Amino acid sequence: MNTEVIIHPTLKHYGLITSNLDAMIDWYRNVLGMAVNHRSLRATSGPKHGPFSAVAFISNDEVHHRMAIFEVPGVVADPEKAGHSRVQHIAFEYDNIDDLLGTYARLKGLGILPVLAADETVGTSFYYVDPDGNNVELNINNYGNEWTATEHIKVSPAFARAQVDPDKMIEARKAGASAWDLHERALAGEFAPAKPYDPRTQF
């Protein structure tokens, strides 16, 4: 038993509290392909049960749950959350730019649009907001491997972000641009949105 050296566990799942369990399940199913592996009602009285009226365990891979969503009747979104300590966002990574852009197009068809889309040098990220106002980032690693991205961060003098219009990126991709071409052209401002995103509205 090691009692001296830090053991590095992996992130397994995270939990959310909501007053609208159905809407949250539907959103994460549509956006991330989450399936409900368990859902049950819970008593809301007594020390063993806590305030939850229902719970759903959902996942989009082989793990029994990547998210636990607890329903608590009457809870409301915090209109002042921007001024409070909080989880800023949760991120999910795709294997390649086609998966990210294809997901953007699919979600756009469902009326789900990003509140921010940007090339952030080490990665390209599209940020969405779930029904309760939680920020969900969908991204790719522009370098294709974590080692190179980490080395870039170590030597980068400052955080860089170039806002992008995903539709312009899709057009360039269909015209034959490589993933790296898209990255370089994004940083050069070629895919800048006609109306810039205002990160202050959500972040």
Structure described in brief:
The protein is of the alpha+beta class and 203 residues long. It contains five helices and nine strands; from the N terminus they run E-H-E-E-E-E-H-E-E-E-H-E-H-H.
Your description of this structure?
It is a single chain. The chain is α+β, with helices and mostly antiparallel strands and 203 residues long. It has two domains: 58 residues, 2,3-Dihydroxybiphenyl 1,2-Dioxygenase, domain 1; 114 residues, 2,3-Dihydroxybiphenyl 1,2-Dioxygenase, domain 1, CATH 3.10.180. It is built from five helices and nine strands. It has a five-stranded mixed β-sheet with strand order 5-8-7-6-9. Strands 1-4-3-2 form a four-stranded mixed β-sheet, with helices on one face. Helix 2 packs across helix 4. The longest helix has 13 residues. The radius of gyration is 19 Å and the shape is globular.
Tell me, what's the shape? globular
Tell me the domain tally.
2
CATH architecture of the largest domain: Roll
> Ends: how far apart?
42 Å
CATH topology of the largest domain: 2,3-Dihydroxybiphenyl 1,2-Dioxygenase, domain 1
> Major sheet, described briefly?
5 strands, mixed
Number of helices: 5
Helical amount: 25-40%
The secondary-structure class comes to alpha+beta
Uncertain runs: none
What Rg do the Cα atoms give? Answer: 19 Å
